[in-house]
Amino acid sequence: RKEVEQDPGPFNVPEGATVAFNCTYSNSASQSFFWYRQDCRKEPKLLMSVYSSGNEDGRFTAQLNRASQYISLLIRDSKLSDSATYLCVVNGDTGGFKTIFGAGTRLFVKA
Amino acid sequence: SQTIHQWPATLVQPVGSPLSLECTVEGTSNPNLYWYRQAAGRGLQLLFYSVGIGQISSEVPQNLSASRPQDRQFILSSKKLLLSDSGFYLCAWTDRGWLYGYTFGSGTRLTVV
Predict the structure, then answer these.
(1) Residue B104 contacts A, CB cutoff 8 Å
(2) Tens of pLDDT along A15-48?
């Protein structure tokens, strides 16, 4: 089993749709969790951290389920500009030295 | 504000040639520094990290090496490139507390021919 697994997609959705991505991780001792966004041939950029209580930033909502060892990202009212690859990131310690990146989920939002 | 610079953006090198990629961070001190590689369609692989000048930890055995000659400078090198070294190389930094996750440089796309 991979340490961090994501559905590679691609997800093809129309503008305005709601789309959800899931990510599972194998290390139950993982400390912190993030979603990153990576545009084609660009560097990843932090989208949001994922907290146990869940967190929301505009159209984006992230959830963490420690018992089932997965995190999720929900995007509401999809925009064309949301088209990108979304990376699930799991940090296994407090120093950032045991960080595992998922391979990413590709999202295409169509007009 | 903090910025991270990485160069060059694109590089095409023949097999067996040397490599030197440089990364510098501005606007912070004592950062943790990282080199990652991303192969096409795959996740990021941590190559090296550093918590201070002269301190380098290697995660993956290979023909690459890293150095940190100054607090905010991180260099990735190779004496002889292999075809398998092709990929997207990313430098990143975090603060000591790892509060805000990684900030990546713009990356170097290396093609070994």
Answers:
(1) yes
(2) 999 999 999 999 888 888 999 999 998 999 999 9
